[in-house]
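Hi R.,

Here's the chain you asked about this morning:
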Amino acid sequence: MTCDAKTQTRDLRVDGVSPVYKLGWKPMRVLAALFPRRLCLLYAFAGALLVAAIGAKACQICLGALGVTPGQQLDAAEQAVLAAPVAGETAYRIVEVVKGTVADRTITAEVLGVDATASRSGAPLLLLRFGPAQRWKSIGAIGAENAGWLRQLAVLGHVAPVRPKAIWPVTTAQTPSDTTDAQWRERLSLVVPYLEHREPLASEIAFGDISRAPYGAIRSLKPQLDAATIAKWIDDPTLAARRPTYTLLLGIAGGADDAARLERRLDAAWRSHDAANLAAMLAADLELRGPSRVDWIEQAYFADRSRTLPEIDAALLALTVQGGANAAVPRERVIAAFRMFIRERAAMAGFVALQLADWECWDATPDYVALLKSDAVKDPASHFAVVNYLRRSPHAAARASLELIADKSR
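And here is the predicted structure, written out as tokens:
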């Protein structure tokens, strides 16, 4: 059996299977060919912990698959300009300087990433220059009238407490994760009017910034959001890839009618075991209806043994996002739901261990000590998560349990 997520989780309905299967990373397939399944799972879980550390503040539902956004690339660039191709030449004339100082108004060096369609659009290209190689790279075309807006974004990216290193290629690890909530709110307020803008690159910048923002900061956009417009975006099949983020925004902006429509979709998803966009719908439902809906999630997904692993994972993710914001649903209520999950799904108890530890919720220490003593957690990845929780717990019972495990392994 391999660690290929796409084949392992599709119809899985059995407790005790690691959530890292859903990652679907190609390196896991290589490991599976070289190592036994259990060892492969340990490597995969370590990778999952790394991902959690990288995107700890970003809304995990919006972030989806890891990727570098245009906004991140602009933040990381040392120089950014809008430049138009010179007719009949392999050169570019700078029409606006967005970031940094540029002495020469003509670029004669090779520019990477130039798209033929973008070049023919008639709009200038947004060119960025990174690092020691000082090579220019195009990230798309955008009208010169947006230069002022791009400069504002560049300034906000520059003043972040932890500015991304100016290197290429940019990685998600360079996201300024220590940016304050106030700085995120300022940036999001600047980009939200450009969602689904007629300029594709402006729209992509806006969507990328919102997708990598903490959910608590995204909630601050409520006065700037129009629920009817967002509902149209959700129903647009050409925007299917953006549906999770727009579903969350609808939860923030919506009203009673949106809540009722969302509940009907959740009921249909529950009946069909459909996990597509489920995490976003559950999080939006919690935002609209509040703590009372946590009871329904506990019974419909945690207590119901017919639920699939992707469904359970979606429910946990929705609660994690709301618990992180600690607003529409108090974190204490989410923690209570996680402890109910530990009791109902002992073999999966490790799924929530990392989040409980990050929230410094040590009341689950007796639960995890008892699970280890009973050997209820069979999966090595879940077992690793439980042990990690106990290592961080300040309770004496946690240390005693770990010492007992160490003695048994000798």
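One quick note: The CA atoms of residues 98 and 225 lie 28 Å apart.

Cheers,
M.
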